[in-house]
Amino acid sequence: MTQYSDVAAPAVDAPAPVRDSGKAPAGRLIGLDLARGLAVFGMYAAHVGPDPDQRGVTGFLMELAHGRSSALFAFLAGFAVVLITGRRTPKTGRAGRQAVAKVVIRAVILLALGTALTMSGIPVDVILAFYGLYFLLVLPLYRLSSGPLAAIAAGTALVLPQVLYVVQQAIGDSAVRSPGEPDGIVSLLFTGTYPALTWIPFVIAGMAVARLDLAATAVRTRLAFTGAALMITGYGGSWLALHVFPGAADAISTSAA
User: Fold this and answer.
1) Is there a single domain that holds both residue 239 and residue 206?
2) Given a cut of 60, is residue 164 above it in pLDDT?
3) pTM greater than the 0.85 cutoff
4) 3-class SS letters over 115-182
5) Do the Cβ atoms of 126 and 118 come closer than 8 Å?
6) What's the CA gap between 32 and 212, in Å, rounded?
7) How high is the pLDDT of residue 145?
């Protein structure tokens, strides 16, 4: 095994060196902290910030915060599940059981807090109860590697929104939660502001990314290109549907009414 005896040990506060393999030593994921901060500020902007309908830079930024910050929150929920249960290798035995218990306890606390805030009549859409349910729904997948998790995320992203549409049509408008009404299981799964059927794919995608070797430059590069490709596909497909295919906008408006 190669020795590095001629390399002086770095100072405590100095950044650790990066080897030729392109991997940084294991440590705190700064990008994860930045994503968490962005999600929190985005949720604040969406709930208590200026109206996105106003013109200019402020309106543009507020529009970016709506929907996207909650999607980032859901993505980070999946990342958190993997961090707790073992990021690169799932914990087993007693450690695994303790990790699962930690996730369940967090989920129950979030469900209780979210339901209490909703019942208090707070004038915002509370995501906490939904967040807790997401933890519980994806927990059985925590032993899977990044490949199967990515495949499940892609499959559920394509299928579950269609299932949700059918279920909502079957339930009817009378079951849709009104502001201030407690989040029941039907609301959490199907009719609430952040229904699990459409948000769970984000959570599973977060689990898949968390399983990757994020210290490797090649992995981060592939993630950046994959994200850009998904963004172009999503926004490009939306633009095509609304501007190229006649009647698409009217059909979407009718189905959402």
Assistant:
1) no
2) yes
3) no
4) HHHHHCCCCCCCCHHHHHHHHHHHHHHCCCCHHHHHHHHHHHHHHHHHHHHHHHHHHCHHHCCCCCCC
5) yes
6) 13
7) 94
